[in-house]
Amino acid sequence: MKAMLLQRPGEPLACVGRPDEPPAAGEVTVALRCAALNHRDVWIQKGTYHVLKYPVIPGADGAGVVTAVGEGVNAALMGREVIINPGLSWGESEDWARPDFYPLGSPRDGTFAEKINVPAIQLADKPKHLDWVHAAALPLSGVTAFRAVSSRAKTKRGERVLVTGIGGGVALFAMQFALALGAKVYATSGSDEKAKRVRGMGVSGTANYRDPSWPAVLREQVPEGFDVVIDSAVGPGFQHLLELAAPGGRIAFLGFTAGGDIALDVRPIYRKQLSILGTKMGSRRDFDAMVELVESKAIRPIVDRTLPLSRANEAYGIVERGEQFGKVVLLNDLGG
After folding, report:
1. Under the GO molecular function aspect, what terms does this record hold (predicted)?
2. Which tens digits make up the pLDDT trace of 308-336?
3. How many CA atoms lie within 13 A of 95 on its CB side?
4. What is the model's pLDDT at position 255?
5. How confident is the model at residue 50 (pLDDT cuts 50, 70, 90)?
6. CB 285 within 8 A of CB 94
7. How are beta strands 327-331 and 81-84 bridged, if at all?
8. Distance CA 146, CA 124 (A)
């Protein structure tokens, strides 16, 4: 088979031939129709992700058709259209992942290839209302956002939810899921154009975080404060999120793209009895519940653009520069 291989950090991906390997016991082979890029893939290419192995085939998101089954796997899976839950070895607890938990794409080879062998328990049926492009956009960002919004922050109908940094895949899924759960959603963005687009999707109000007055803008829109805040930056603006939260509010952070090493005045946490919730990808239960919500509400992932998998390096540049609005999906053209 052919695959896009990252030989060592800092290098572009190269299309290479790899031996076809039959699935091991308990595994299946999935012929991939589409894959999707996450910012995690950029960090792996740069060598800054915390779990690294080289050479590696990157990619956590994928959708395709089961073409082979290993020993002990039900043969009825043959020909099934599936998406792949990329989270391996979550563990038994719903509250946290095992220390050796990791998604596909490093250290285990990922989805930027013609096919992939994965444990059969990682499969879920492709939602019937989604084509291959939108199905491939769903897994990693979808389960990460769902766990933050639903499992951890326990967003309820009628609550006021603030999603920061709207425009990337996870933030847009958080917006979509919060809206689907009946919340009133607000957002910050560094782009007025992206803010305008989400207002057209049901977001009640926005603020541009590049404007120093953004906390005051949000306070004017929601003087009562936000019941739920979903953040992925944990940067200097995190203090403002504490101030903007309503009494009893929950702040879930699902990453720390702005560094995470910040000084905080914790008095708002004490006075308002806030809950600060760390959240990381999601369990199998989270994944199944996310897919169920997507199907029941006919949610379509927001896709910015598609590119051939052979042009993956171009896609990396788009994501690294933050040019996308939604997911960048890679169409598998390596077999041609």
Report:
1. oxidoreductase activity
2. 999 999 999 999 998 999 999 999 999 85
3. 0
4. 80
5. confident
6. yes
7. unpaired
8. 16
pTM of the model: 0.96
Q: What is the CATH number of domain 2-141+282-331?
A: 3.90.180.10
Q: Categorize the per-residue pLDDT at 233 as very low, low, confident or very high, splitting at 50, 70 and 90.
A: confident
Provide the residue ranges of all domains of the chain, joining segments of one domain with +: 2-141+282-331, 153-278
d(CA 82, CA 267) in angstroms, rounded, equals 48
With a cut of 70, say whether residue 258 has pLDDT above it.
no
What's at 181, amino acid-wise? L
pLDDT digits over 87-141, tens only? 999 999 999 999 999 999 999 999 999 999 999 999 999 999 999 999 999 999 9
